[in-house]
Amino acid sequence: MRIFSGIQPTGRKHLGNYIGAIRQYVEGQDRGDPAIFCIVDLHAITVSYEPAVLRERVYDTTAILLAAGLDPERCILFRQGDVHEHTELCWLLSSVTAIGELNRMHQFRDKSLAQRELVSSGLLFYPVLQAADVLAYKAQEVPVGEDQREHLELMRDVARRFNSRFAPEDGEILVVPEHRIPEVGARIMDLQEPTRKMSTTGGTPEGTVYVLDEPKAIEKKFKRAVTDSGNEIVKDPEKPGVSNLIDILAAARGTTPAAVEEEMRTARGYGDLKVAAADAVRDMLSPVRERYEELRGDEEALETALETGAEKARAIAAQTLAEVRDAMGVGPRR
Ligand code: TYM
């Protein structure tokens, strides 16, 4: 079983990233042979950014992933820009990707509207590079949050189209991957605006809980979380704030929303739910923050881990690239 996922080097990873994705990576590293995780610096340059900051953010994100429990001995962790096969495969796959498909992507629409300066063509191409990330490793399973569902559908279509156009009739070259979206916590919402997903760029500062937040900051953000009218603690589309807190508490404790509702039947009000959620999230994130502080100081060690990961990743991706080029008639016959 090949597991692959990617994460942007925004540095300030939040509770949504942690519950929706990072925890699944850690769980996946004992099932994947080996599981592969990529810090996608080439995706990060599709919106305005500072070069020096980007490099730092890659180390921040690497340290967060290691602190959360990824072990470079048991998985492959690397920086996308170190493995050139991703960009080459992206170009090759563009020949089986329609412009219309890319134009329709919600994330492209949202992000291009949010750009104050130039809307880069890289932003339009973003999902093709993402398809290349996964398809280069013939991954079967991709752990992601709900917001990546559409990108996963696109890469499945791209893989199928590539196979039907270029693979021999009796076999396939690219593997059509499946997403792995968690049952609870696939879409953590902003604590201040619970109808919007928690996000580094689109959320509110008070409503976004960061993995590296101090316990006091976590408690404060939960205390001020927006709830809804009434006082019943149940999941309900009419109660987005309360529903989000129930999901967060369930995900942090590893139980179900129904179990949280049951437990909260004797609560005195929303305040109890907020305190319980804050405690659970604080207990979940504190050890990660503490390990992060230790790891982030040694940039050389982080760089070595990424370089070693890139070598292993390259060996796998190069194999796929050779097959893809050969099937497409690019370069000399093998
Ligand atoms: P990124 O860096 O924005 O997010 C990393 C992961 O966190 C998940 N996530 C959430 N989960 C639950 N609730 C939320 N509020 C929330 N916000 C984010 C995301 O779904 C994601 O799994 N395009 C990807 C990076 C990428 C990738 C890939 C992913 C590049 N190549 C190949 C999978 C496979 C992204 O921007 O993730």
UniProtKB/TrEMBL annotation:
Instruction: Summarize where L-tryptophan binds, as residue positions.
Output: D133
Among Pfam families, the record links this protein to:
tRNA-synt_1b (PF00579)
Please state the Enzyme Commission number of this protein.
6.1.1.2
Q: Which residues bind ATP?
A: Q8, P9, T10, G16, N17, G145, E146, D147, I188
Report the catalytic activity: tRNA(Trp) + L-tryptophan + ATP = L-tryptophyl-tRNA(Trp) + AMP + diphosphate + H(+)
Entry-linked InterPro entries: aa-tRNA-synth_Ic (IPR002305), Rossmann-like_a/b/a_fold (IPR014729), Trp-tRNA-ligase (IPR002306), Trp-tRNA-ligase_bac-type (IPR024109), Trp-tRNA_synthetase (IPR050203)
Task: Give the EC class as a word.
Answer: ligase
What CDD domains does the record tag this protein with?
TrpRS_core (cd00806)
Q: GO molecular function terms here?
A: tryptophan-tRNA ligase activity
User: Which compartment or compartments is the protein found in?
Assistant: Cytoplasm
Q: Keywords assigned by UniProt?
A: Aminoacyl-tRNA synthetase, ATP-binding, Cytoplasm, Ligase, Nucleotide-binding, Protein biosynthesis
State the family it belongs to.
Belongs to the class-I aminoacyl-tRNA synthetase family.
Q: Which PANTHER family match?
A: TRYPTOPHAN--TRNA LIGASE, MITOCHONDRIAL
Listed name of the protein = Tryptophan--tRNA ligase
Species of the source: Svornostia abyssi
Q: What is the lineage of its organism?
A: Bacteria, Bacillati, Actinomycetota, Thermoleophilia, Solirubrobacterales
Q: Which gene encodes it?
A: trpS
